[in-house]
Amino acid sequence: MLSLTLILAAIFLPLFPFSMLFNLLYARVRNPWLRSVILLVWPLIGLTVTRTFSSIPDWLPVWAVLTSALYALRALGLREVGLWTGFMATSSWALLWVLENDGLSAVQLELFAVGISVPLALMAVLTGGLEKRYGAAYLGLYGGLAQTIPRFAGVLVMVVLAVIATPLFPTFFAMLSIIIKAIPVMPYLAMGVGLVWMLWSWAGAKLLQGLIVGPKQAAVVDLGMANMWAYVAILVALVMGGVCWLGVML
Amino acid sequence: MSKLIIVIPLLPVLSAIFIQLTAAKLERRAAWVSAMATGLTFALTLVVLALEASGVSLQTMCLTHAWGELLSDPLSAIMGTLIAGISLIVHLYSVRYMVEETGYARFFVLLDLMTASLLVLVAAADLITMLIAWHIIGVLLYFLLGHDTRSQSSFRYAFWTFITYRLGDIALVMAAALLYHAYGTWSLADIFAHIHADPDKRGLLGFSVVAETAAFLAIAAFARSAQFLLHNWLPYTMDGPTPVSALMHAGIVNAGGFLVNRFAPVFVYSGDVLHGLFIVGLFTAVIGSVLMLAQNDIKKSLGYSTMGQMGFMIMECGVGAFSLAVYHLIAHGLFKGTLFLGSGSVIGEARLDDGVPKDDLYTFVVERRTAKRRPPWLMMAAMTLTIPALVLVLAHWLVSPAFYQEQGAVILLFFGWVTGTQLLFATFRMRTERAAHLFTIVLASFTVIVIGYTLISHVFELFMYPDPAFRELIHRASNINFVWFDILIALTTIIIVFGWLSTHYAERGGKRGPQKPRPVWLSFYALISREFYLADIYAWFTRMVLRLAANLNVWFRWV
Hints:
- Chain A is mainly α.
- Chain A contains twelve helices and no strands.
- Chain B contains 22 helices and two strands.
- In chain B, strand 1 and strand 2 form a beta hairpin.
- The longest helix of chain B has 32 residues.
């Protein structure tokens, strides 16, 4: 029974190879809003399942960090933005296993999960926006978004920064918490988390370079002012939430 | 009055927000709003510096219960004034320089945010605030260097900077996590008090917490201050706007020296790491200077010059001259900023008139003409060995006799000696007709510089580290085994004597006339002209990682 629950948890808080199920499903779903919902709900289901465990085996956090590193590394080799979001989600959620045995309450763990998932959900919506404008969301296919659709590019930059754990977004505090929790138990694991963080930065920079940099392209409709302010409001709320809820846990 | 500590970084943030929100209406006036805010910030930093110098200590301001603390101490006051001052110059320069660039308002928003982040970094009183500012500086620099969003090459080189900085960021996170785990607090003051009470506390894997932390801090400083193997980003970031290059070379790259000074209470209990700083700094100083001499591009040459200077700064930290490193970074920041901002005009004017006076130096360096007679070799060799040493001893005796009892000071004195020797040696090779006149000028300049440098470094030390017991701790930590110390001194003396003997041989009995360069020299030149193939090795490594990622995706069918 425990092993079945563990497998279920390994699907929703992705551990390789069970993580492939999430990425298979995510690639099949094309609707950006549905993708966003999946990104928001998926880790919460995983945390609900893990709540039934009294403790988790010692090898699980190691496996989780290896899974996270694998997907962070694989994100470097991607050009399709949708897949990139899925891989980054897998890489981020896997790290929640490190926090599992740390005595955090269910609400605190869920806050970490939401803090990680919201930027990914925004990324999914922006991917939909790119597909709508250009027919595909591919790195290096068109580029020059900063020149062509500057408002969209600005929001995209901020969302990517939120995904790759830049201060003051919640992901930054989540990564800091994970490293602090890992270092006394398994110092090398903390170094592994640091390596994952570096790979995220590389993947994020590569994504931005492939999308926003380049000469101006044929005119397409930029993000409307109302939509832009909506994104800004969510990003500001994320920062405030990160500082007020996750930052104070440190 | 303590609220000034908060207001100083807040002003540029408010300016950035205001410009971002009103960019369309402000248009070109955005630059002046930004420059005025920075001017006001600079004025406030001067007030805080004056208060610190007069002994008025401002209270620490705390934004949340655990972090968000800002402090005012001599280090933060000096660094804050430097940052705000250089930022103001860069702002004023950019008002006209950037006017034809797209994203004019965005540039000033980023510049303001960068100024604010740097000011928060130097005033951070806890680890989280410091980590936040440290991370954000790397991100902002990435976007400032890639300001021209049409240029792929700008972003490619900005990425080199970004990823090297990330390495330093992670190292700093590790150091912070180790300290928090060991002492259960984020406050720097509390951590330093704990360390002082029990410097031998054991940490992870049985090592000393202080040594482990110092090692991670050193890596963070190396990445930020372009030490050898982590330096490639520095000379290659010249595609960014010139004001950004000036800000980077004059301010941001100095963060390594600042970090060592901020964590001085950690480094004083980790002598081995200080020795490591000395070795890495020395190596970087030599390599940076050699690479600088091999460049034919002025901006790249300035980049490698900065690398050499940063090596020297880290080396100073390694010999315990922490406050001297701060003075060095200020002096370097001012002259390198001037060089960068003036490099464009220099090139422009040089096309019309090279402006080089046709004196002895010109005939020696440019026309390669030498005088027929020159001073006797033996007299010059004796002068070379004695005069710099006498000037340095005199300087230290005049400033503070106790100072030059320290080993670190002796090593620095030795570097001064080497520099003086090199200066006299170069003067000797010039074969000037007016030898006495030239040597008087050279010696007078050398004496003024050495005495001035020693005096200022001593004043800085008293200002930054007023506690004599702590100064003693710094010097004790940086001391090395006397055998090694003597070997180092003897080795340097042998090199100088050998240099003079070679000159003597070449003058009296050696081969004359043009000679073909030896193959070993050609190989060495190839090595430095390719910058030790480091860029190629990193590019190869990057390709390998990307290929591995692509192969993994194929094997796992992209899921």
